[in-house]
Amino acid sequence: MNSLNIKQLLDDLISQAMRHAGIDEPIAQIRQSQKPEFGHYQANGMMAAAKKAGSAPRMLAQRVVDMLDGHSEFDFEIAGPGFINIRLTAQFIERNMTDFQLHESPATRADTRTVVIDYSAPNLAKEMHIGHLRSTVIGDTAARVLEFCNHRVVRANHVGDWGAQFGSLLAYLDQITVPGEEISSKLVDLEKFYQSASKLFRVDQNFAAKAREYVVKLQRKDSRCHKLWEKFIAISLDHCQTVYHKLNISLTQADVKAESAYNDDLPVIVEQLQGRGLLTESDGAQCVFLDEFKGQNERPLPAIVRKSDGGYPYLATDLAAARYRSQIINADEVLYFVGASQQLHLRQVFAVASAAGFTKPQQIFRHLPFGLILKADGKPFKTRDGADVKLIDVLDEATRRAFTLINEKNSSMPEQQQLAVAEVVGIGAIKYAELSKNRTTDYIFDWDSMLSFEGNTAPYLQYAYTRIRSLFRKRPTQENSPVNRMTLTEDQEILLAIRVLQFTEAIDAYLEDYQANILCQYLYELASSFMKFYEHCPVLSEAQDIQDSRLHLAKVTAHILQTGLSLLGIQTVEQM
RNA sequence: GCGCUGGUAGCUCAGUUGGAUAGAGCACCUGGCUACGAACCAGGGGGUCGGGGGUUCGAAUCCCUCCCAGCGCACCA
Question: Which CATH class is domain A6-88?
């Protein structure tokens, strides 16, 4: 992949010129221009710099432009109060497009970092529901992009496989299973099973007592109980893998590091906190009090690491996980793709882990929050009342709707192929709907908007890709032939070529805050630029040199569309 | 009460960290398939950027204040 970054290039160029013009710490403020009359890029930093130096902005801009006289690949123009508008020449674009290498390593980052990504993390007591979509899809994109940039990525699926709720599940499982019967048959619908068990827990006191007994048994590693638990977990994990596979998520069972995996560390964590003098007993619980945390009425807010009944809350587990990621994995950075409601909790985890020396100061622990998914009436999906929409059902519905559409648009396609395309299109639409808005706020789940296949959606990008592939089905010999020289004359092809060359910029912008919508926006603009080019610039009917040039442009566009979509975990097809 | 988010077109959302006349998609209206694929393209209408004040050459963006919504604030995860 081409590692040209135009914005960076211009930043270096303008900053240098500003320095020569007498500005000490130049900030060029290079932006992509919003309007064609302002050029392709603009430097906005002259006004601020002139103010600081006590000179007139337009005069400074003029001095800077004078310094750049030798650069024939850009046109500079001073506008308004002191903007420098920058136009890329066709020569610059053609040269870089000709040199564009499809199969080079990306290497947008020279330094390779180890990044742990904590995402998905379903509770194995129940089936994955719509609420898991955000963490899973957003986190998976981060993993793919960081790997694409040659970082070492450790996927951490911190699944919930421990706690009191497993008491009633195991007690119920034990109660309804006939000896010798395969228990997996009882768990085909994990959701219903969970509901039945928790209902029984509420209405039947004998059962509730038994459930509590099972919790203790499980903690003591009672062998029969533990085996039952292991089977339950294995089946539940299989459910997850089925969902991951359908959703094209890169998580495997090897990425699972469950809560229970830290069980043996929990007493050690408390011991070490004790050794550091951080522990205080309060109402029978072992707590860490840090000054920065205040609760209601300004009362000190504890981070409880051991409950008064001797049990360990999830904060203890998260501390153990943080320590493991710091000391064993030796992470440079740990990203938590976890809901916004966990913000205080994670701040406590990071602060306590740091105070206790479980993590090192130079290691970056970051929470990347997101909001809840609401029903159409604005009420949240509750976890206990069974109102959750199963994730697998959402995926099947998406595929079903996509099939209906394809069948209508392209009925001559063999049915087997239609089904395969429907998977790719339906799943792509769901994921893109998530990724294209990376807001930290709640949002309303709506079938129709989520499964729309028009406008700024994954199918639009996939469709652009198939249109390009269609060109090469008509010119198969052009597919692998290099271009000697690009000839770009029409606005539409110049704008498309610029978009192509901005891919690295989009990746860099994404990595600032892991906001996938930036990547989506880029890909949408790329596809949109292609559609305009395709409408306006004939390809196959043109003379050979123009045809070669345009086919090369189309080829590179297709490659970036496919690469970009793959970073979002979205697939492409040859025809749809 | 305190803290964290957020409030932008009828709806869903962008807005590159203070830049030029606030942008997309959906929906609505008009035009374009005998045409490299119409899941598309060209064009149109639609805004008190929650209200008010302030900072400055310049504010959706920064500061203050108020209103509204969501989430969180001691032993469920």
Answer: alpha beta
